[in-house]
UniProtKB/TrEMBL annotation:
UniProt cross-references to InterPro entries, sorted A to Z: His_Pase_superF_clade-1, His_PPase_superfam, PGM_Phosphatase
Domain of life the protein comes from: Bacteria
Any one Pfam family match given in the protein's UniProt record, by short name: His_Phos_1
Natural source organism: Nocardioides aestuarii
Protein name, entry field: Histidine phosphatase family protein
Amino acid sequence: MPDARRLVLLRHGRTAWNAIGRGQGHADVGLDEVGQAQARLAGPWVAATFAPSVLWTSDLARARETAAHVEEATGLTARVDPRLREYDLGERTGLTMAEFAERFPAEHDAWNRGEYGAVPGAESTADVHDRIVPAARELLEATAPGGTGVAVTHGASLRVAVATLLGWPEDVVRGLRGMTNCAVAVLVTDGSDRPLRLDAWNATPDFASSPAMY
């Protein structure tokens, strides 16, 4: 259809904190060596597979460094938008899951039930929804009919955007597998008022088949 558009949500490459399971949130952690290798492969893959015409990125280093490889492969200049950030984890930032459970046992139990934001200073899902969903919708509106917009963002906040854009209840999206570093979710619209449709989830370039990369 002539008014069809595609939205590609790309998770950033791996960081050292990803590798050991530390909660990052708004901490400005850059890509590690593996993450840089992932992003170098992901940039040309995104360019060749989706031919994007618009590129936005979270302002956190791990997203901007990933977006730089998409910029190089596409010739686009990424618009930096802090609304595409990950959840702010508050006092949980920098903790492994074991440390989180030990220091905040009640909040850890709530997290396991899908209740986010219980840790002091942390964002709730509603908080993240109120910033990332408008950003995703604006990116889609900025994409010309027939085109593709790409947002480089983060695993947990990406799921919030996907749930709302598809019109899914929150408990449904929790059934999706966690997003792999440098994987994408692809949503499409035919230009009508209907919710977007999910075309792909956790799609990756060929590096995903190599366990040594993770």
